[in-house]
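FAQ

Q: What does a record look like?
A: Structure on top, sequence underneath. For example:
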């Protein structure tokens, strides 16, 4: 499952870039910071759902 590994690497890099971006925006007010963290959490949740679907499809051998 080389594709799965590549997707995991891409996700990791995306999260690193997001964290770098947050560090550059240290002057954000609390509301914006909370919105960005909520978006990051939603991204992680969606990523987990996506990986679950891939594993399910892999089991079905589609």
């Amino acid at each position: 499952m080389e594709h799965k590994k590549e997707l995991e690497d891409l996700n990791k890099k995306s999260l690193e870039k997001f964290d770098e971006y947050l560090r550059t925006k240290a002057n954000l007010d609390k509301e914006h910071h909370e919105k960005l963290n909520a978006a990051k959490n939603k991204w992680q949740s969606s990523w987990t759902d996506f990986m679950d679907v891939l594993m399910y499809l892999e089991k079905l051998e589609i």
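Q: Is there anything notable about this one?
A: Residues 1 and 46 are 20 Å apart (CA to CA).
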